[in-house]
Design brief:
Blueprint lengths: L15 E5 L3 H16 L5 E6 L15 E2 L3 H8 L11 E3 L1 E5 L3 E5 L6 E3 L2 H14 L3 E4 L2 E6 L4 E5 L3 E4 L1 E4 L5 H11 L6 E9 L3 H7 L2 E5 L8 E6 L4 E7 L4 H8 L2 H6 L16 E7 L7 E2 L2 E3 L14 H18 L8 H6 L1 H4 L2 H17 L1 H11 L1 H12 L4 H8 L2 H10 L8 E3 L5
Parallel strand pairs: 1-2, 1-12, 2-8, 5-14, 12-19
Antiparallel strand pairs: 3-7, 4-7, 5-6, 6-20, 9-10, 10-11, 13-16, 13-17, 14-15, 15-16, 18-19
Helix pairs in contact: 1-3, 1-8, 2-8, 12-13, 12-15, 13-14
Length: 432
């Protein structure tokens, strides 16, 4: 049984925290709470409730599985968990940005991203949490009751009582409804996605290389697509307001997508109808009522991600660590969680810039202006760096916008108008 945390102050010795969701954000919160409490001389009971099975290939995660900097520093430095470099299938060195008429190679100077299977990464972190004294309950939450002295968490296998509950359930609609009914939480606005995997064989993977290929189609329904190399396959995903299987087939049938995908070994041309599709969603804005007395949301559930390109795994881990620090230092009352919003202002303040970038990119792709930007980026290193940062989400969008609007960048855009080709830009009409 939980011992009430008098006055809703910082989580005290003997208290219990329940984390709903065992993905990177939930596990990061749990480990940061457990180890942070120990450092303060407090014995806090932490339970992670997760209904999915990450081992035995029983679960497919619709996430593209790209871990961006500073994920290694967060896992090792803040959580004290060795980073599982053995799971790092591919070190992503750069991007190839494709438009309907041209393409450009974008290689940044920052630390590479890491592409891996999400379920393997999730299983590793969950086991690391278990080794650090955190209880893992394999169950789904079925109900929530918030009382003045505790929270009652009902699951399909047990009932738990807690002093504070952390929502780390991503965009799981069923769990979101439970928090909506209990505390007035509102899920974040989201884009839908369709994901599939393509296995071209060892020589095909070698041919594809270690860059992510990003596509900005002129389609009114597909906002962007991407081909991401893994160890033995390429993850293919598209996103938009309401993408579906038909739109994925339309994307796979686009000539510049077909040309980018390597052929199957000993089988000639691949058949898109042989691929298995998975449906998912990811946030594009902040959720409503993400904290209050005895609860706080982290990661996707809070909508605390980069507004256009996500960077969801890194943001989930970062916001989980921040939530744990606030719970241990400031408390579990609604007012105490004002500090949580304040410490996440770097993400929240960047959301309008990311949204503006999203709408500008959609407009530019559908009107052909994106090709002007690509040609200009080949002329101006600053604009090319800004384009890399926009695609990779390595830097805040406000910095990307400022760099892209420098006088040199504007001059490069003006110079590119009317020019069909520039160095480093491949024109799909056959020159360049």
């Amino acid at each position: 049984m939980s011992q009430p945390n008098h006055g809703l102050g910082p989580l005290a010795a003997g208290s219990r925290a329940v984390v709903v969701g065992g993905g990177p954000g939930g596990v990061a919160t749990a480990i940061a709470l457990k180890q942070g409490a120990r450092a303060l001389g407090r014995d806090v009971h932490v339970v992670v409730v997760e209904g999915k099975q990450f081992t035995g290939h029983q679960q497919y995660n619709q996430c593209a599985g790209v871990l961006s900097p500073p994920i290694v520093e967060l896992i090792e430095g803040d959580l004290g968990v060795p980073f599982p470099h053995s799971l790092g299938h591919v070190m992503i060195t750069g991007y190839v940005l494709h438009t309907a008429r041209s393409e450009i190679v974008l290689d940044g100077e920052a630390e590479p991203s890491i592409a891996l299977r999400r379920v393997e990464f999730d299983a590793y972190l969950l086991e690391a949490a278990r080794e650090r004294g955190i209880d893992i309950l394999s169950a789904r939450v079925t109900g929530l009751e918030f009382h003045t002295d505790r929270v009652v968490v009902y699951t399909d296998t047990d009932m738990l009582e807690a002093d504070v509950v952390v929502g780390a359930f991503g965009l799981d609609e069923g769990t979101g409804v439970l928090f909506e009914r209990a505390v007035g939480y509102k899920p974040p606005p989201a884009l839908s996605s369709v994901v599939t995997k393509y296995h071209p064989g060892e020589s095909g993977m070698a041919q594809f290389g270690d860059r992510i290929h990003a596509f900005l189609p002129t389609s009114a329904q597909i906002e962007f697509g991407a081909l991401t190399p893994k160890s033995n396959h390429i993850t293919i995903n598209i996103a938009g307001a309401s993408v579906d299987a038909n739109l994925m087939r339309e994307f796979l049938d686009m000539p510049y997508v077909r040309c980018t995908l390597p052929r199957l070994e000993n089988a000639g041309k691949y058949n898109p109808n042989d691929l298995h599709f998975y449906k998912g969603r990811f946030p594009r804005g902040l959720a409503g009522h993400i904290s209050g007395d005895r609860f706080v949301m982290v990661g996707d559930a809070a909508g605390l991600v980069r507004a256009f390109k996500g960077k969801g795994i890194t943001s989930a881990v970062l916001t989980g660590i921040r939530a744990a620090n606030v719970i241990l230092r400031d408390g579990i009352a609604s007012g105490a969680f004002d500090a949580y919003r304040a410490v996440n202002n770097d993400i929240i303040a960047d959301l309008p810039y990311g949204q503006a970038m999203r709408f500008l990119t959609i407009y530019a792709a559908r009107t052909g202006l994106i090709d002007v930007a690509v040609r200009a980026a080949a002329l101006d290193p600053g604009l090319r760096r800004a384009l890399f940062d926009a695609v990779s989400a390595h830097r805040p969008y406000r910095d990307v916008v400022r760099e892209g609007l420098t006088s040199a960048g504007v001059r490069a855009v003006l110079a590119s108008i009317g020019s069909r080709n520039t160095p480093k830009v491949k024109d799909r009409n056959g020159s360049g």
